Amino acid sequence: MASHINAKQGTPSTSRATSVHIVAEPGVQPLSAGGEVGDLESSMHSLSIAEEHRPDSPDKEDTNDLRNTVHSLWKWHSQPTLRFGMQGGDFMLSANILLSGNNYRKVALLFKFMAMGMVSVSTFFRIQDAYCIEPVQEYWDKTRAEVLESLRQKDRVVVLGDGRMDSPGHCAQFCTYTTIEQDSRDIVHIVSVDKRETNRNSVIMEKECFIRTMEALLPELAIKEVVTDAHPQSSALLNPERGKYKAWGIQHSLDIWHAAKSLSKKLRRVGTVKNQTIIQAWIKDIVNHFWYCSKHAVTEEQFKMMWVGVLHHVRDEHSWATGCCQHEPLEEGSQEKP
Ligand SMILES: [Zn+2]
């Protein structure tokens, strides 16, 4: 819209007037408007100085065509103009919303609150498709190749994987499964599955992602251990006796982060029941104790011994028949919890 020049009628008193209009065009499309108007409209302001010719005698018919003829003398933009008239700021904004992992709607809302011009949604997606997707893909391929190259030196690689749905519950459309390497925390693989690829069954999307990840990584790296959440399908695939990948001799470990998250969720649910709300004050401590046990216990037996201590501790009982708390003696009056 920056190229658009406003042809306004001059004052009727002058027979031949050369009027100069300075037109400030915000070019902002209201966010609520359904249709996106125009092509690459500017998000910033542009000023046009136009020369308007007015006919000598307004009654002459042949001058009617000239009535709205406007010549642009010069035009000012608050941002550099790129090829095809695209505004540099629109391009930068669109590319950087994507590259900074942001969301168009949220940034647009911020701009709206600040009464600033904003690139339209259609321009945003056009710029993303035309200029961003391919370079990002190329950069990722190059980075991933370098990461795998360095990991090939290792003879024991531990990877951690987890899937993320585009929406919670069983109605998700997409699942993205990301796998990182334990020591470097580098992402070694990303795979996305569309529900249509799993016969519209969103429950097996994570399994499908996991299989694709393993198929891609096993021939490349010496994977000896895989850490996942307690997803039964991943556990079945990695089962050392019956699993699909039993021949690879992979150790399957569960991610404590998921277990701690699920523990606190369960405690919160229990805490909502009448006469049990007292538990709420303890949730943080119980989850911390779970982390502590997971970190310090070497065997399952040891873990259980430490874990059971929480039941004694909450009753202000810090040593019992089979063990005792690991903490320092508690100060008088420091037990403020019920
Ligand atoms: Zn204690």
What keyword list fits this structure?
five-stranded mixed sheet; 3 domains; three-stranded antiparallel sheet; 8 helices; binds zinc ion; alpha+beta; Nucleotidyltransferase, domain 5
Which strand order do you get reading across the main beta sheet?
6-5-4-7-8
Oligomeric state of the chains present here: single chain
H/E element order: EEEHHHEEEHEHEHHHEE
Number of individual domains: 3
Structural class by helix and strand composition: alpha+beta
Strand content: 15-25%
3D shape: extended
Number of DSSP helices? 8
Mean pLDDT over all positions: 80
Q: Report the uncertain regions.
A: 1-43
Could you give the distance between the termini?
Answer: 67 Å
Give a quick account of the main beta sheet: strands, pairing sense, barrel closure: 5 strands, mixed
Radius of gyration: 33 Å
Portion of residues in helices? 25-40%
User: What is the number of E strands?
Assistant: 10
Ligand types: zinc ion
